[in-house]
Fold this sequence. Notes:
The complex is a heterodimer of chains A (231) and B (275). Chain A is an all-alpha fold and 231 residues long. Chain A is built from 10 helices and no strands.
Amino acid sequence: xxxxxxxxxxxxxxxxxxxxxxxxxxxxxxxxxxxxxxxxxxxxxxxxxxxxxxxxxxxxxxxxxxxxxxxxxxxxxxxxxxxxxxxxxxxxxxxxxxxxxxxxxxxxxxxxxxxxxxxxxxxxxxxxxxxxxxxxxxxxxxxxxxxxxxxxxxxxxxxxxxxxxxxxxxxxxxxxxxxxxxxxxxxxxxxxxxxxxxxxxxxxxxxxxxxxxxxxxxxxxxxxxxxxxxx
Amino acid sequence: xxxxxxxxxxxxxxxxxxxxxxxxxxxxxxxxxxxxxxxxxxxxxxxxxxxxxxxxxxxxxxxxxxxxxxxxxxxxxxxxxxxxxxxxxxxxxxxxxxxxxxxxxxxxxxxxxxxxxxxxxxxxxxxxxxxxxxxxxxxxxxxxxxxxxxxxxxxxxxxxxxxxxxxxxxxxxxxxxxxxxxxxxxxxxxxxxxxxxxxxxxxxxxxxxxxxxxxxxxxxxxxxxxxxxxxxxxxxxxxxxxxxxxxxxxxxxxxxxxxxxxxxxxxxxxxxxxx
Lengths: 231, 275
C-alpha cells in the first residue's frame, strides 16, 4: 500500500493560491466592487477637501492609502466568506496539508489583489490630484507592495476570526484599523516621499518600518493562524 | 533625604508591592471561584480601606507636602495620579499578554477569565491616565491633544484593546472566544512597540517619563505612596472582575438554554455551533 505523504507547505500554498485567484478571476465580483469603491473614495476625498489642488497634491499619499485601506476591508472580509458557502474551509482543514499554508495562500492572495488595486489607483491618483512620481515607478511599486503586505497579513488572521463572529462587518475594521496604524503611517509617509522627492533621505527608515511590520505580522500570522481555524 | 532613607523606601515599596500581589493571587485562587467557601470580607474590606487611606495620604503628599516643580509649578502635581495609572495600565496589559500566551499553550478557563479581567481593568486605568494626560497638556502645551508620541501610542493602544473587548462580546462560543481573543491579544501586544516607534518618528513633545529615579526624593515618596494605593485598587478591581468572569463562564457552561435564542452564530443558516 502506498503511504500518503503530506503535501509540502510550498506546494500547498501554490495550489491554494491558484484556487483562490481562479475563483476571483471567474467571478470577478470582489474585483469589480473593489475597483469602483476605491475610485469613488479617491473622488470623495477631493470633494471633502475642496478644489484646493495644492492641498490635494500634498496629501495624495495619505488619500491613496486611506482608499486602499477602506477597500481592503471589503477584500479581506470576502476572502473567508468564499470558504463559508459550502463549508469548504472544513474541507481545506481536513486536507493532508499544513494549516499554515491556508494562511500564506490567503494572505498572498489578498496582497496580490490589493497590489493590483493599488496599481490601478496610482494612475488615477496622479491624474486626479495632479501629482508626479518624483522618484520613479520602482520605489512606488516597492512601497505599494510592502504596504499591501502589511495590511494583508494581520487582515487575513482577523478576517478569519471576524468571519465567524457576530457583527463581522463591524468587527473586522474595528480590530484591523488600530492595528495597522503604524503601517498606514509608514506607507503614507513613504508614498509622499516617493511622490515629492526625498531630500532628507527618510525613505529608508519608513520602508524599514514597513519591512519590520511585515516580518512581525507574517511571522505571527504563520504561527497563530492554525489555532484560529482549528475546530 | 539620606541614602539610607532612600534604600529603605525602595526595598519597602518593593516588599509592599509583593505583599499586595501575593494577597491578590491568594484571593484569586481561594475566593474568586464560584464554589468558594472562603469568607474574604475582612481581607477585601481591609484592602479597600488601605487603598483609600493611601490615596488620601498620597493626595495630601502630592498636593501639599511635595515641593513645587522648578519649571512647571503646581501643574506637574498631576503626575502623582497620571504616572501610577499608566504603570497599572502597562502592568495589566503585560498580564493580559501572559494570559493569552498561556491559554494558547494550555487551555484553562481561569487564564481566559483573567485575560478578560486584565484587559478591561487595563482599559479603565489607561483611559483614566490618558484623560489626565490630556488635562495636563492643556496648561503645559496649551492644547489638550498635541499628537505627542506617548499620548498617541496610548490612544492607539486603548482602541486596540477596546477592539479586543468587542471581539469577546461578539463571539458566543466560549472555546472559540478564548482561542481567538488570545490570538488577538498576542497580536495587539506585539503592536505596542511598533506603534511606539512609528509615532515617535513623527515628533516628540513629551518629557522623559517620570520614575522615582528621575524625580526629587520628596516627589518620589509621594509618587510611591500613590503607586501603592493604585496597586491595591488594581488588585481589587482585578479580583472582582476575575470573579465575575469566572461566574459568567460557569453560567455559560451550566445553562446553555438560558442564552437568548438568536445569540449563537447561526447566520447563513449553516452554522451549527452553539455556545
